């Protein structure tokens, strides 16, 4: 099927898939904010061509670790402390992750709205063809 309504549905579904993955990454980061040595995960997006539906859609390009250093905390009794007694905390910034999760949620809702409108247009078209 090669029409603009199906292309809209395909693009919106891909957008929802990417935003749900983005929410998952932000959730993983938030759940490990207190894990010593944890490195924040980041992701990039890419535009790809869906050859079957002939539509450009968004996809996850890469998931990588943030190489910035976490804060060093002096705690010689901690099992992960180095020889000088310092433990490296995670490099996750809770505010950044919450903002990213909120943005992903809103983008998901926007794609869902597009998906719903396109399916409604399909229903209307089918109803017109029946009459």
Automatic annotation (TrEMBL):
One record GO biological process: bacterial-type flagellum-dependent swarming motility
InterPro entries, per the entry: Flag_bb_rod_N (IPR001444), Flagellar_basal_body_rod_CS (IPR019776), Flg_bb/hook_C_dom (IPR010930)
Q: Name one Pfam family in it.
A: Flg_bb_rod
Q: Where in the cell is it found?
A: Bacterial flagellum basal body
Got a GO cellular component term for this one?
A: bacterial-type flagellum basal body
Residues in Flagellar basal body rod protein N-terminal domain copies: 11-39
Highest taxon in the source lineage: Bacteria
Location, primary (coarse class): other
Assigned keywords, A-Z: Bacterial flagellum, Cell projection, Cilium, Flagellum
Domain Flagellar basal-body/hook protein C-terminal residue range list: 84-128
Name the protein family.
Answer: Belongs to the flagella basal body rod proteins family.
Q: PANTHER family from the entry?
A: FLAGELLAR BASAL-BODY ROD PROTEIN FLGG, FLAGELLAR PROTEIN
Please report the name of this protein according to its UniProt entry: Flagellar basal-body rod protein FlgC
């Amino acid at each position: 099927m090669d029409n603009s309504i199906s292309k809209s549905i395909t693009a919106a579904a891909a957008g929802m898939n990417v935003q749900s993955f983005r929410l998952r990454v932000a959730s993983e980061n938030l759940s490990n904010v207190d894990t010593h040595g944890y490195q924040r995960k980041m992701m990039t997006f890419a535009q790809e061509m869906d050859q079957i539906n002939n539509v450009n859609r968004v996809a996850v390009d890469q998931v990588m670790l943030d190489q910035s250093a976490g804060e060093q905390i002096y705690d010689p009794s901690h099992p992960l402390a180095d020889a000088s007694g310092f433990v490296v905390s995670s490099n996750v910034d809770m505010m950044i992750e919450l903002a990213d999760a909120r943005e992903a949620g809103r983008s998901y809702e926007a794609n869902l709205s597009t998906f719903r409108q396109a399916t409604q247009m399909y229903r209307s078209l089918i109803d017109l063809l029946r009459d």
